[in-house]
Amino acid sequence: SELFKRITHADPEERMPPVDSGRALTSSDIETLRAWISQGAKWEKHWAFIPPKRPTIPPAKNSAWPSGAIDRFVLAKLQRAGLQPSPRADRETLLRRVSFDLTGLPPTPREIDAFLADASPRAYERVVDQLLASPRYGERMALDWLDAARYADSHGYSLDRRRVMWPWRDWVIRALNDNMPFDRFALEQLAGDLLPDATIAQRVATGFNRNHSIQSEGGVINEEYRVETVVDRVETTTAVFLGLTFGCARCHDHKYDPISQREFYEFYALFNNVPETAHVGNADKLADKPFVKVPSAAQRKQMEWHRAEIAELEKKPEAEQQLKAARKALAALGQAAPTSMVMGELSPARKTFVLSRGQYDQPSGAEVSAGLPAALGQWPAGAPRNRLGLAKWIAGAENPLTARVVVNRFWQMHFGTGIVKSSEDFGAQGEWPTHPALLDWLAAEFVRSGWNRKAMHKLIVMSATYQQVSRVSPGLLEVDPVNRLFARGPRFRLPAEMIRDHALASSGLLVGRLGGESVRPYQPPGLWDDVVYENVPRFVQDH
């Protein structure tokens, strides 16, 4: 290569680095380089496609600072860079930091006073446990998950009509508050409808892959938008669980990662069997099939009462009119229950073909069946070739990506940036991890813990690394301006939702009720005038 020629050039004027740069190679360096090149380079898989192994925790050399494994990995890199960790943040700052991170809300004055008055060594840990047990924890953790799953309460295109998806959002919050293991959390969202005797809740969970936009224009081609929804599911599932830019292989083989166009459509086949049209028309429909009715707690209570009433009335022949009225009331309650879009499977399965250049109307003639890219591993033995089998692989021991991708997002949540900065791309074009051994240790620990989210969040916020003061010295700013070595505590802006909730909580206006139908917040006057037709209902603010 030209690089090798310039590095080893006999003419000092041509050789790189230049002699007067202070970095020129010696003749011995050049001979070593020649010998190394002559042996040939060793081909290895990209690091993210190799299943993580639990690395050895480094020793704490000449330091009493580390409080756990995380700190030892961080300290080892700091010491190699000639740096030392920062002191612990003051207690009030630390309480505010961890409260926002775990609940999305500031501590109350009473909570601050109680923490400052608690002199026991376990004071901070007790606060962490209380925050993890708070119902606000599920709402805060759902915030990032809903964004990743493109959650919306409207269809997205043109008129952007209202739809009902909040039962799925409520399922997510409950699952997070209950600390549902992540492997189960993934399985129910990807394939809850395929579980034996699936419950309504498990079917509602599959709304994860029904959050896509849905057309209502009268002149659209149904098949075109149906294909777009399937592609959307492939891209969302692979980005959220695998951290890969899978969509790049829709029209051609991926330019950088080992995913062929054929393999894209083999994965696509897993999501191609939903009995849907992806078009609701101009009617004000709240859902596109398939969907389920999801009665609220109050509606369920009323329905149970009516069922009991009907059972009693059926024993009384003279109560025919009352029986009709009770059945009518029960039917009305069922009809009034909100709908939630869910996944479903066609039988027989829809055929899948590779689409030339990704065009919905240009099947190439190459029919494919469900499968995984060879670079990511093999289909799990004995698992069905459908979304249920996929879900088992997603959180399986042989999958090299899911555990790494998830713990990296946990780290990003607490430090502003992940160990892999490109948290959405673990492929060849993504950034390499700053602390590869720490990332693999966290991934292995996540699996070892039984995919326990709360345990991982506690592990991170209890670390001395997390508890450091966030002040930046001029020297540290020069060496590590964006805190990639974690020689100081996290320091980044609050997201917009937390700023709003901070104001509401501080003023006593925050409503603590969990779940239920979403509200329509303030929007500037006239915002909708240029985006919808005349005589079409505008957005109306709730109060």
Question: What does the model show?
Answer:
There is one protein chain. The chain is an all-alpha fold and 543 residues long. It has 20 helices and four strands. It has helices at 2-7, 27-38, 69-80, 91-103, 109-117, 123-133, 135-148, 166-177, 182-191, 200-205, 222-242, 261-268, 297-313, 320-336, 387-394, 402-415, 436-448, 453-461, 474-479, 496-507; strands at residues 291-293, 339-341, 352-355, 363-368. The strands form two sheets. It has a two-stranded antiparallel ribbon. A two-stranded antiparallel ribbon has the order 3-4. The longest helix has 21 residues, at 222-242. It is globular, with a radius of gyration of 28 Å. It starts with a helix and ends in a 36-residue tail after the last helix.
Distinctive features:
543 residues, two-stranded antiparallel ribbon, 3% strand, mainly alpha, two-stranded antiparallel sheet
Give the fraction of residues assigned to helices. Answer: 40-55%
Task: Give the overall form.
Answer: globular
Order of helices and strands: HHHHHHHHHHHHEHHEEEHHHHHH
Low-confidence stretches: none
Distance between the termini: 68 Å
Summarize model confidence as the mean pLDDT: 92
- From the alpha-carbon coordinates, what is the Rg to the nearest angstrom? 28 Å
Strand content: under 5%
Strand order of the largest sheet: 1-2
SS class:
mainly alpha
H/I helix tally: 20
Sheet with the most strands? 2 strands, antiparallel
Could you tell me the number of beta strands?
4
